[in-house]
Amino acid sequence: MDSFLALIFLASIFSSWYFWRKKPNKRFLSGSIAVLILSFLLIGALPQKTEKTTTNQAKTSKSVKKERAKASSKRESEESAKAKSESEKEASLAKAKSESEARASSEASARKESEKQESERLASESLAKAASESSAKEASEQAASQAQAQSESQTIAQAPAQNNDNTGTAPTNPNPPVNNGDLNTADANAQGAIVGNSRSKIYHVPGQRGYRMNSENAVYFNSEAEAQAAGYRKSLR
């Protein structure tokens, strides 16, 4: 645009000179002068317009830059807030995970402690039960022993006195020995080393308290195996 106006300005100067000096013509001269003045005014006004346009462009550019800076700042702020939110979320998740692990560990410890206490309780109950059973068994054995001793004593007390010619009946021995009143299996009259009571089904060996007896229920055996085969058991005392 500037170049075109400058070209018109130069052309109007030349035409004004031409129609004034070379070929005078007032009509064309007036037109040339008018074009000259108009082009001059346009050329003078053009820089202002350009400057104004430049100013407007600068303002627009500044406004655009400001808007861009504002948008960039807003975007950075949003990104920062988002990053902060994500960081807080990760921290919250990490904290929740840590609390969950700690709670799981605490529950596992409590469960192990409970299982340990339960195991100790069961072991204690088992020991107490075993001790009780052992004590009951010992008491039962002691009661059985006392009952056996009492039965033997009653048998001895109730047995009538025997004459020297009386003999006991032994189902397992066809030749029973002579009962001399003071029975002793070690005597010459005894026919075996084991003496049993046919009523209590208990046999005695030499050295036991009930080995010596005076009873018509005395039965003799040559060995413990023979007595056990006949259904007798050994005396506990």
From TrEMBL:
InterPro entries: Ada-like_dom_sf. Keywords: Membrane, Transmembrane, Transmembrane helix. The chain crosses the membrane at residues 6-21, 28-46. Residues 64-123 have a biased composition (Basic and acidic residues). Residues 124-134, 141-154, 163-172 have a biased composition (Low complexity). Residues 52-197 are annotated as: Disordered. It comes from the Bacteria. Gene3D superfamilies: DNA Methylphosphotriester Repair Domain. The lineage of its organism: Bacteria, Bacillati, Bacillota, Bacilli, Lactobacillales. This is DNA-entry nuclease. It comes from Ligilactobacillus faecis.
